[in-house]
Amino acid sequence: MTTVDDLAGHFGPYGGRFVPEALIGALEELDAIRIKAQTDPTFLAELAELHRTYTGRPSIITEAKRFAEHAGGARILLKREDLNHTGSHKINNVLGQALLTKRMGKKRIIAETGAGQHGVASATAAALMGLECVVYMGEEDTKRQSLNVARMKLLGAEVVPVMSGSRTLKDAINEAMRDWVTNVETTHYLLGTVAGPHPFPSMVRDFHKIIGEESREQVLALTGRLPDAVLACVGGGSNAIGIFHRFISDPSVRLIGLEAAGDGVETGRHAASISGGSPGVLHGNRTYVLQDANGQTIESHSISAGLDYPGVGPEHAYLHDIGRAEYRGITDAQAMHAFALLSKTEGIIPAIETAHALAGAMQVGNELGKDAIILINLSGRGDKDVQTAAQYFGIPL
Amino acid sequence: MTTPLDDLFVKTRAENRAALIAYIPAGFPSIEGCKKVIQAFVDGGVDAIEIGFPYSDPVMDGPTIQAAADQSLAQGTGAKEVFEALKVATDAGVAAVVMTYWNPIEKYGVEKFAQSISDNGGSGVITPDLTIEESASWKEAVEKIGINPIYVVAPSTTDSRLPQVTSRCSGFVYAASLMGVTGTRTSVSSGAPDLVARIRTTTKLPIAVGLGVSTREQAKGVAGYADGVIVGSAFIKAILDAPDEATGLTAVKELASQLALGVREGR
Lengths: 397, 267
What we know:
Chain B: The alpha subunit is responsible for the aldol cleavage of indoleglycerol phosphate to indole and glyceraldehyde 3-phosphate. The structure holds 2 protein chains of 2 kinds. By secondary structure, chain A is an alpha/beta fold.
């Protein structure tokens, strides 16, 4: 099994394009230019050079031996995307799309952000390449992630707090789509995850699949064999698809996505779209969605702003349905426990998003035992979460 | 077999004028209030009514319709209330359609949705985020039930794509006058006549223009080149700006009658 999308961006019954007609032209232009870029040596060299000299790729692998004692003694290998410039995997996609933006002759990018990581990465790429940048961020999230708001402003971006709906990531995407419909001639929508209308799920995956390509080589070099399981947190699912993709055709490798279960999937206060949602259409694609009987989106809940999204990328929906990947829920409490544990056992403060994957590794490690090798995408660092974590653990600021 | 919407455009073409199409979300300003707005539309001389299915994530809508949708959803509006409002409109003797984002249709059941439109006297459905590429199940349902599928085309729709979209339409073609979201504008985009002219080369269907029309003068201007004039946000604004329901309903009726004059003055 290799790439599973068709030319119209379908993954089985999922994906596709459900957007106002006004955007079709821009989506087709983007699709044509990204397909051309995939085989253009100039583009590939330009992106590789940025990876090497700006992002700091390849990112390293760290073996977490002390943390592993809490994960059934399995070998725990961390793919350190947190060490990338700007502190998360998001930069991989952003640099790729920013280069495409320049190729399209557009001067302005817009982006949505939840935790602020994608917003910061977008603002960074815009600064580097001389593009105007507007970031839409739910008002609720601007409060939870005020440090990242300041970072974006320092980088020269305009941050627009979104006051509609639940005032989180979902509504930031709505507002970015409205901006795009209005300004599509001059503006590229630099979508930050593997959701949205075709070609975004495929394109964003392709910019992140380097994570899995690098780590597959690195794990083979380090251990002499493939990992037994690859784990990543899943909100929209970009870091997960990035590390999963190269392993899809390795049947012995289990792919496990950890969704944000908030207070618990059974409470209804969660962001676990696959574990607790149903197929529907949201933000331009068919996928698993948190929705009510009338097809209205239900607000998601998670301590992690970056996972607080009521949908998921369509490729994950498909990988779930065909049984190639497994998806589990991790509660806020489980994630925060893993957050503290990695900090204290390894000296690495992870993003709260990433902590969901670490909590998953504690479960999976105990299930598989000490002979297992578990690869985890350490997708982001936790500096931005210090305030939230301090509040959670009662540390006075 | 023709729908009331098909019949309406035969009539307005015979009268050499444009049709006035008014939009209101079901359940706005309240479940009962919406029914009174529909009556005010009829009393003011509206030719056809679009009942909006309020949706949690309306990416094609500006702040005015978003506010109306939020207010409606807060009162629990769902498919049942949408079809009730549709029936109020069709019982009042006007052609009526539902405008909805795709997910509520998919959740309700695609064929069942088309059937409920027909059962309540509705003529068709406007689907602003259903692309023709994703419309196979919808095409099958509307053809089986015999209602009008109405797609939106935009100024950015290319000449090569236009006939593909308009050939999927019946009833009318919805021409979005500008690149943007719903809402009142001080002037109707100068791109609208050009878009309508481009659509005419692809279809004999009536063409209705929406986005940004709010005054009699604007309606008159659009009626000069289009078969239908669609007004939404201006009515909602009139209701939101009114101090009480009765004042709002009076304002809606007055605006409708002004617009009804406008669509008769264009040619």
